[in-house]
Amino acid sequence: MRAIVHSTTKAAWGFCVFTLAIVLPALVQAQSADDAQSVKALTISSSGALLTLQGSDLFAMEGGTSTKIALPATDQSAQPTTLARGADGRVYLAGPGLGVWRYDGAGESWQSLNNTLPDLGVTAMAAHATQPGTLYAYLGKDGMFRSRDGGAEWVKVDSGPQEPVQAFLHSDMPGSMESGWLFAGTTRGVSRSMDCFCFWGDAGDLRGKVSAISYNPAAPENVYAVIERQLHHSADGGETWTSLKVPQPVTALAFSPSQGLVVGTANGNLLARGAADEWTPVHE
Amino acid sequence: MNNWIYSFILLAAPVIAGASGGPESADSTPTGVSQGRQVYEQYCAVCHGWQGEGAANWKKPDEKGEMPPPPHDETGHTWRHSDAMLFKMVTKGWRHPFNKTERLTMPAFEDSLTEQEIHSVIEYLKTLWTDEQKKYQATESQ
């Protein structure tokens, strides 16, 4: 009897190990494929091209063509996660282990803006909506830094909200004591401050880990945030939020002057929101 | 003898208090700051506190949906604004854009105070900040 039980247990363990050996790699591969495909960040260049960060590749989509842009040569551990466009149309790339870089479209090269940052652990960055040289970077270990000279000199200005910042936005929404507002997507929700860094407060009661945030420059009270791949919209500067239905899980956001709100999805697609709130693929 | 001691304490106490880290006393500061303190106590302290401590829970809207008066000392954000912005706020007043009421919660003082009085009250506020904050604010004012 004991021998039968022993044999059965041994067979069950063998089956489990076999199943794990077959299923786990497939799961990991599926996850990796999803990560590689997913649109991590999105912005619009000064020429109107959609720039998408997918996996560790950057693409410019314009006039029916898609062009791959080589990323800066950095350490293997660098993770590009954020794209931003400055008020002068220049494009910035940032991420943990990468710091902040600026793209020179004419020379097709990247310039490091990391000389005066204390480290490269940038988890979120934003460009001022109207001042070309003003940039903001959030460093997980060190708090919030601002540069007013295009990244030559960074100065620590604040610790930031209580929770770590995952996504960052500067908006020229009216009503600020200074020149605009900062929206920080944190692990708890959306936090908001005037750009004097006067104090960070909750922007409404939207809760969850924010992975992307954007706004409509033509109607700045309209703010969009992604939580758990679900898109949310505020029409009153972050006071109240409603959920928006999108046919695919949303991973990135940008506002295009010609196409309005564009979302990047976990499936690697780009969808634009039409006038009747329908979502249509953005064709390259 | 005791009367002498009490008189000495009464005369010396304000001087010692002024020299021990609180807001600078009128006697030991430039005229502008001294005047600024008087203006502050007459017009500002009733809302922003006698020591510039602001309202309790000033970061959250009150029952009327208005943002309460913030501190002006080192715990607030006054030091984050340039002289020009502070002058504008005192002159024209201020309403937080997300207040549920329409009134100016920070009244406009352009009809009550002269420009010189407003500048002096800003100079007084600077005595409530840390050295690092003063340096930050000086950079913002450039």
Structure write-up:
The complex is a heterodimer of chains A (284) and B (142). Helix content of chain A is 13%, strand content 45%. Chain A contains 1 helix and 24 strands. Chain A has a 4-stranded antiparallel β-sheet with strand order 1-2-3-4. A 4-stranded antiparallel β-sheet of chain A has the order 5-6-7-8, with no helix packed on it. The relative contact order of chain A is 0.11. In chain B, helix 2 crosses helix 4 and helix 3 crosses helix 4 (115-126). Chain B starts with a helix and ends with a helix. Chain B is mainly α. Chain B has helices spanning 2-18, 31-48, 83-92, 115-126, 131-141. Chain B is built from 5 helices and no strands. Chain B has a single domain, classed as Cytochrome c-like domain (Cytochrome Bc1 Complex, Chain D, domain 2, Orthogonal Bundle). The chains are: A mainly beta (284), B mainly alpha (142). The A-B interface holds A 174-178, 196-199, 201, 237, 239 and B 59-60, 70, 77, 80-81, 85, 89, 94, 96-98.
- Report the CATH architecture of chain A: 7 Propeller
Biggest sheet layout of chain A: 4 strands, antiparallel
Q: How many distinct helices of chain A?
A: 1
What is the CATH C level class of chain B, in words?
Mainly Alpha
By CATH, the architecture of chain B is named: Orthogonal Bundle
* CATH homologous superfamily grouping of chain A: YVTN repeat-like/Quinoprotein amine dehydrogenase
Distance between the terminal alpha carbons of chain B, to the nearest Å? 56 Å
Major β-sheet annotation of chain B? none
Number of strands of chain A: 24
- Low-pLDDT parts of chain A are 20-33
How many strands appear in the DSSP assignment of chain B? Answer: 0
Give the integer mean of the pLDDT values of chain A.
89
- The CATH C-level name of chain A is Mainly Beta
